[in-house]
Amino acid sequence: MSPAEKNGPLAPFLARGRPLIADGGLATALEARGHRLGTRLWSAELLVSNPDAIRDIHAEYLAAGADCVSTASYQASFAGFRERGYDEAEAAALLELSVGLAVEARDRHWAVRANRSGRLRPLVAASAGPYGAYLADGSEYDGRYGVEFGVLDEFHRRRFRLFARSAADLILCETIPSGLEVEALLGILKETPDAWVWMSFCCADGARLWDGTPVEEVARLCDRADRLVAVGVNCVAPAHVGELIGRIRTVTDLPAIAYPNSGEVYDAHTGTWHWPANGAGGAGEPILDARDWIARGAAGVGGCCRVGPAGIRALRRQIAGVRLAPSGGSPGGGLGPSGQRR
Fold first, then answer.
1. How does pLDDT run across 4-56, given as a tens digit for each residue?
2. Which of 83-87, 238-242, 286-290 has the lowest mean pLDDT?
3. Which of 43, 172, 257, 268 has the fewest Cβ atoms surrounding its Cβ within 10 A?
4. Which of 256, 98, 257 is nearest to 168 (CA)?
């Protein structure tokens, strides 16, 4: 399989030899503009009440320099919409709308900038959050859901297949804290030949997913999957990213993409953020060391919770002129030594 075939929609970006820039936290940017996201649907609530606001945030991230924007569907699922009183057809329409808003924002941006920006046409990634996002109890940062494989398979399957048929360029299975959940998603991908997937793990430290699974174990599973175009980590403390990328690179030559939170810690019980006792900075200030991550083998960088459009703009400036590590095409290259819902 050629690199273009293996890397699917990411291939043109990797061919440039420069890192891909992902967007930041959707909920972070919406809250900064005064939107209250207090229900279990979180940012997906605005798919019903104010879809224009979502499209506007996508546009802001694109203007800030993002090469890829993710849809307002992280917290959205058939099960979650059903519990809010929506039937199956209405839930499907809202999930399709999440993709449509991002595609519309991307296409408007591209129509204006294509002839003078020197950039590639940005990608739209359909965000598929973990089972813990549906629970809305902070389980993304635990991963020990206490449910069987079949529950996870049923939860993800219909949304996954809807996204595979959508106008999104790929599906972003993100903030996955459980090895069992990774296995469920890879099983669905195997049965969905029209999907491209980027898998991103949520980790407790520099070595393990929140359920205790070694990051090398799930990265190795992803390496064996067809149409899986990237692996990575997100919504982790920036201090853990370098080690996680190094560990991932020992077992796979898939592109690694990292988009951590700001370094602040989310308290699921109080719904508030705080800096750790030994932390530094102020609310919403990204702590990014992207040059080091790229040197260790990352092919893409971005931000998650508490990183907004200004943080992505600063990130793009920080890595201007940086090239991907020469060893980025072979396992082991670049080896070196939690947040709120989107």
1. 667 899 999 999 999 999 999 888 888 888 877 777 777 788 899 899 999 99
2. 286-290
3. 268
4. 98
Which pLDDT value is given to residue 182?
Answer: 98
* pLDDT tens figures, 273-297: 555 555 444 444 444 689 999 999 9
List beta partners, residue 208. 214
| Cα–Cα dist 197/9, whole Å | 10
How many residues would you count in the chain?
342
Residue 190 has pLDDT above 70, yes or no: yes
Strand partners, 201: 176, 233
300: left (phi over 0), alpha (psi -120 to 50) or beta: beta
CA–CA dist 88, 145 (Å, integer): 25
Residue 19 in tokens: 């890192």
Give the torsion through C-alpha atoms of 84, 89, 94, 98, to 10 deg. Answer: 140
Distance from the Cα of residue 292 to its chain's centroid: 20
Kindly report, residue by residue over 109-124, the tens digit of the pLDDT. 999 866 556 789 999 9
Nearest to 256 by CA among 205, 311, 297, 287: 297
Three-state SS at 256 = strand
In terms of C-beta density within 10 A (0-12 exposed, 13-18 middle, 19 or more buried), how is residue 147 classed? middle
CA separation for the pair 181, 129 (Å, rounded):
11
Per DSSP (E only), the strands in the chain are 20-21, 68-70, 123-128, 170-176, 197-201, 228-234, 256-259, 265-267, 272-274, 298-301
Section 255-284 average pLDDT? 64
Those residues whose C-beta lies under 8 Å from the C-beta of residue 119, and which sit 6 or more positions away, are 67, 113
Look up residue 162 and give its two tokens. 């809807």
